[in-house]
Design a protein that fits this description.
By secondary structure, this protein is mostly helical. The protein contains 12 helices and 4 strands, in the order H-H-H-H-H-E-E-E-H-H-H-H-E-H-H-H. Helix 2 runs antiparallel to helix 9, helix 2 runs antiparallel to helix 11 and helix 4 runs antiparallel to helix 9. This is Branched-chain amino acid ABC transporter permease.
Length: 316
């Protein structure tokens, strides 16, 4: 174990972990929303993320940008990021709603067993992933240089870059907006009511199908924003990256307490930190192992995650 490597790069590992964890957390929100309402693990959500990531890149392409483009000026950067963020959120929301209408709603109408939902989710995930693979000829898509990676300032010797501030800040803003939506709006009350007792909510006049569709759309929009943030952080995108990232986002949701919105935030940030600290301590080849090992150990002692399930009763 290289403790010297961990401590000497602690600041850099922390900023990288928080940046990656913020992306995990945004994707994890989709898992936790759907599970909180339907008690369903939507394994097709990783491809909802990919839809948003590709939509952002193709939107930039339609605006005349390519992987060699360099955008200067704060106004231009904000414009390109804003347009792409809206496109990514819409693309992912539409993808999620189609999955709900085509794959899951017919199963609910037939009172299908949970295994049928699981198999359908896996099938939908593979089908969408392969569709993107065929369309892109399994080649990586480049991302224009929109946000500087040069240090903006330093904290205790650790360089802080604009791209890191943008990713973490955007993720936090989106999470706060979603939390306010669920807790302070009429639709949010409907979500919490269906999560707590769908039959009683229906008797009280809540349209369960509409609420479920809304949950998929909200989770999809979060995943779309995460896709855009992933693009600008990594600088390239391939059709298959959603699988591992989706697993880690699901791990983050379980880590924080699946069904708990604030738990998804905590789990995502914690997972990002753990895997980056592990890469500094025992090597980058153990990064993924450490992320899943921490989940197993935690669930042995706290099966409901750090904050527990909470979307229904006091549900975040």
């Amino acid at each position: 174990m290289d403790f010297n490597g961990l401590f000497s790069n602690f600041g850099e590992l922390t900023t990288t972990g928080l940046t990656q964890g913020a992306i995990y957390a945004l994707v994890a929100l989709g898992y936790t929303l759907v599970y909180g309402v339907l008690k369903l693990i939507n394994f097709a959500h990783s491809e909802v993320f990919i839809a948003g990531a590709f939509a952002a890149i193709w939107t930039w392409g339609a605006l005349g940008l390519n992987q060699d483009s360099v955008v200067n000026g704060v106004g231009s950067i904000i414009m390109y990021l804003g347009i792409a963020m809206v496109a990514a959120a819409l693309a992912s929301a539409v993808t999620a709603s189609v999955i709900e209408r085509v794959a899951y709603r017919p199963l609910r109408k037939r009172n299908a067993p949970p295994l049928a939902f699981l198999i359908t989710a896996i099938g939908a995930s593979i089908a969408i992933s392969e569709a993107f693979g065929i369309y892109t000829r399994r080649l990586p898509e480049g991302v224009p240089n929109l946000v500087s990676i040069e240090p903006l300032f330093t904290i205790a010797g650790t360089p802080i870059r604009p791209i890191e501030l943008l990713i973490v800040g955007s993720a936090l803003v989106m999470m706060v907006l979603l939390d306010l939506f669920v807790n302070r709006t009429r639709f949010g009350r409907g979500i919490r009511a269906v999560a707590q007792d769908p039959n009683t909510a229906a008797l009280m006049g809540v349209n369960k199908d509409r609420i479920i569709l809304l949950v998929f759309i909200a989770g999809g929009a979060m995943a779309g924003v995460a896709g855009l943030l992933y693009d600008i952080r990594i600088g390239a995108l391939t059709y298959s990256v959603g699988f591992l990232l989706g697993l880690k986002a699901f791990t983050a949701a379980v880590l924080g307490g699946i069904g708990n919105l604030r738990g998804a935030l905590l789990g995502g940030l914690l997972l990002g930190l753990v895997e980056n600290y592990a890469s500094g301590l025992i090597g980058s080849q153990w990064k993924d192992f450490a992320a899943f090992a921490v989940l197993v150990v935690l669930l042995m002692f706290r099966p409901t995650g750090l904050l527990g399930e909470s979307l229904g009763r006091a549900r975040a």
